[in-house]
From TrEMBL:
CDD domains: PDZ_MPP3-MPP4-MPP7-like (cd06799)
Domain SH3: from-to ranges: 226-296
Entries under InterPro entries matching the protein: GK/Ca_channel_bsu, Guanylate_kin-like_dom, Guanylate_kinase_CS, L27_C, L27_dom, L27_dom_sf, MAGUK, P-loop_NTPase
Protein name: MAGUK p55 scaffold protein 3a
Region (Disordered): 326-347
Length: 557
């Protein structure tokens, strides 16, 4: 059996240990696991680095000087005191460069072994206080980040109590501050008679080391595991503009469409959350569904009245400009989807990651568009360039000679159309030039039954019928870009009329975004047909291979 010498290093020991591992019938899996771990190349490199550092440490190295920065400044000052040669000018340029100054500053810090901030000494009366009551002195080191805790004044006793600990913040990482702790002092300053806002300001202004005098809660809360609840925000939130938040600095700003991980819902009114993809480890406060519910309801109700009073024809283009949608469809009396006007819906929507599995029906692709988007033309171009299926429209008009049944239209009798409309078989339907047109929900099902990707363009109102677990729609909002130069040119060539059309396009996009934007997965800004077609093709390709956030109800069985 090989024997290690006295000077053998760790990596040699590791290699010898690996060679001695033998398969064992009772521990075969454990042996294989250990062998794989010990044979990992990166572990061998770490062992070699460790040995080199130990060898260097045994030499007891000492820095040549501890103040290289000061010496560089003295040399630079000396060079500037008289005429300089070319070499001296170059040296002065090097010594005054910010990069070299930073390197010398780091050298001095390492040479002086000054790695941590100097903590203040314990108070003289610390032992006496410990005898009077259970006092805990907590010393934390934080940078410019908030402490990550909010406070409140106890109504009965007047004590300053830690109300919540923000997950991932400085207080949470320390594990020394808990909900219910009574705060007495901050850096030696008593907070007993201070207002909560004064205490918050004192905490936020403290940099480096911060010393807290705390009376621990009778029972410290258990550290809970982080929640795995994810939601899509359906509104914008700016904490600095919210006077109702218990701590504006602790608030988490977000925009509509952001995915939030709800860390804890212990407080029924203020949840703690993190933005998915955000590098900040500290959670922030977000309003729960209960916060300002009445104010939100009033705002949504007022907005709903404005939208309902707007002309429906302002949303339509081409053939759809003259559609008269049935009121029954607009109300969605029998649809499964969520009602966009529901005030409870306009807060958060619980979501999860979803990826289409092999042999699973592809997701329905839904296009909605504002005035000028010409989404039907865009749809047709994408269908030609990619193996997609468009849902034929049911119509009562006569078939033209060049048309084929079931390609773009299903030609039906007026009696059949009226019966289907009465039985609520259309996603949407309307009238154009005394002929009826409608998009059948069964036509979509027939395409998806063949496991083919299906794409439809509908009015935004139809989303109520389509947003179901059956279709799992991916909604794309197409709106045209109107550059400033185009606006001026249109106004110049057609004063009044051109600008009026552009204003209608902008207003149409704004209204759709305000009323239905929370149901949209992707906004496609249409610069021109070619670039919009290419972008849409890219979206469709990613739908087949990538995962996306969808409502939890779509994947739960």
């Amino acid at each position: 059996m090989p024997v290690l010498t006295a000077g053998a290093g760790l990596h040699e020991t590791l290699a010898l240990l690996t060679s001695q591992l033998r398969p064992d019938a009772n521990h075969k899996e454990d042996m294989v696991f250990l062998k794989d771990v010990f044979s990992e190349r990166s572990l061998g490199y770490l062992m070699k680095i460790h040995e080199k550092l130990r060898q260097y440490e045994r030499q007891s190295p000492t820095p040549v000087l501890h103040s290289a920065s000061s010496l560089a400044e003295d040399v630079a000052e000396e060079l500037q005191s008289g005429p300089m040669s070319t070499e001296e000018k170059e040296l002065l340029h090097l010594l005054t460069s910010p990069h070299l100054k930073a390197v010398l500053s780091v050298h001095d810090t390492v040479a002086q072994k000054n790695f941590d901030p100097v903590l203040p000494p314990l108070p003289d009366d610390f032992e006496d206080e410990l005898e009077e009551e259970s006092v805990k002195i907590v010393r934390l080191v934080k940078n410019k980040e908030p402490l990550g805790a909010t406070i409140r004044r106890d109504d009965a006793t007047g004590a300053v109590i830690v109300a919540r600990i923000m997950r991932g913040g400085a207080a949470d990482r320390s594990g020394l501050v808990h909900v219910g702790d009574e705060l007495r002092e901050v850096n030696g300053v008593s907070v007993i008679h201070k207002r909560p806002d004064e205490i918050s300001q004192l905490l936020s202004q403290s940099q480096g080391s911060i010393t807290l005098k705390i009376i621990p809660a009778i029972k410290e809360e258990d550290r809970l595991k982080e929640s795995k609840v994810y939601v899509r925000a359906l509104f914008d939130y700016i904490p600095l503009e919210d006077k109702a938040t218990p701590c504006q600095e602790a608030g988490l700003p977000f925009k509509r469409g952001d995915i939030l991980q709800i860390v804890t819902q212990d407080d029924p009114t203020w949840w703690q959350a993190k933005r998915v993809g955000d590098s900040n480890l500290r959670a922030g406060l977000v309003p729960s569904k209960q916060v300002n519910f009445l104010n939100k309801f009033k705002h949504i109700f007022f907005f709903w009245l404005i939208i309902e009073s707007a002309s429906v024809s302002g949303f339509k283009t081409g053939l759809r400009r003259s559609f008269r949608l049935s009121r029954k469809d607009r109300q969605g009396s029998s649809g499964e989807g969520s009602d966009p006007g529901d005030p409870d819906y306009l807060t958060y929507e619980e979501v999860t990651r979803y990826q289409q599995r092999p042999h699973e029906r592809p997701r329905l692709v839904v296009l909605i568009g504002s005035l000028g988007a010409r989404i039907n033309e865009l749809k047709q171009r994408v269908i030609i360039s990619k193996f997609l299926f468009c849902v034929p429209t049911d119509t009562t008009r006569p078939k033209k000679p060049h048309e084929k049944e079931g390609v773009e239209y299903h030609f039906v009798t007026k009696q059949q159309f009226d019966a289907d409309a009465l039985n609520n078989k259309f996603i949407e339907h309307g009238e154009y030039k005394e002929n009826q047109y409608g998009t059948s929900i069964e036509a979509i099902r027939s395409v998806q039954a063949k496991n083919k990707m299906c794409i439809v363009d509908v009015q935004p109102e139809a989303l109520k019928r389509l947003r179901t677990a059956e279709f799992k729609p991916y909604v794309i909002f197409v709106k045209p870009r109107v550059p400033e130069s185009r606006r001026r040119r249109s106004a110049a060539t057609s004063p009044g009329g051109g600008e009026h059309d552009l204003q209608e396009m902008r207003q149409s996009a704004i209204q759709i975004d305000q009323q239905y934007g929370h149901l949209v997965d992707r906004v496609l800004i249409k610069e021109d047909s070619a670039s919009a077609c290419a972008e849409l093709r890219g979206i469709l390709e990613r739908l087949e291979r990538e995962s996306f956030w969808v409502p939890v109800s779509w994947v739960r069985t």
